[in-house]
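Weekly modeling sync, notes
Attendees: AB, CL, MP (scribe)

Item 1: holo prediction request
CL wants a bound-state model with adenine before deciding which constructs to order. AB pointed out that an apo prediction alone won't tell us much about the pocket. Agreed to run with the ligand included and paste results into these notes for async review.

Input as submitted:
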Amino acid sequence: MKLEVITLFPEMVEQIVAWGVVGRAAKNGLLEFGTRNPRDYATDVHRSVDGRPYGGGPGMVMQPEPLAACIRDVRRTLPQAKVLYLSPQGRVLDQAYAAELAALPELVLLCGRYEGVDERLVTCEVDAEISIGDYVLSGGEPAAMVVVDALARLLDGALGHRESAQQDSFSDGLLDCPHFTRPEVWEEQAIPAVLKSGDHKAIAAWRRQQSLGRTAERRPELLEQLKLNRQDQRLLDDYLSQRGVDQND
Ligand code: ADE
């Protein structure tokens, strides 16, 4: 996948390919990552990219001309790219949306600063707006980094076998199960015995049950969107009745 981020702070966003899984995907050529600075497309001596808002009010608004010139230049090298503008007004990122984006051959992420970008630029050059949640950041860059991380790890071959994305939270609409490593007993807390049983079927059932139970307790609205089969329903019922027993002890 070819991905370009348009930002006034390229050094900040480039950190996303300096480390970890995303860094490895970039090094291995699964992700061709670049940044572009709209300031390089400004035409005045001050290289300005922002202006005061028409109608008054606080802050500054990013001007359309340097952004349009920048996006049009990027489109020359990425002609198939969708251009997504990071903004709280966009469709909220979730695992399914990340998977949709990871399937695209090319993508451009546009980061706003200040109060945002001139709406005419959004109308003419942006395919969709994307949000990472219902809160306001001071710029699109941290959001772009979240989007890049969430989709890069889904690219074919980005994760090793042991890190498989199929086991992630949300990949099947459920939260992840708990994980444990050595030592077997830590501060008087032993790991669940089943994990040492060597019984792979029992371990898989326990993990599934934990995922179902945690989702029911913590994010019931996620569970409402799923149709559980009889086996899952039984696992969940057992989990909840066990918890009920524990809480009444
Ligand atoms: N820019 C500012 N806030 C944002 C958010 N919540 N998501 C995406 N981009 C943003």
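Recorded for review: The mean pLDDT is 95.
Action items: CL to compare against the apo run; MP to circulate these notes.
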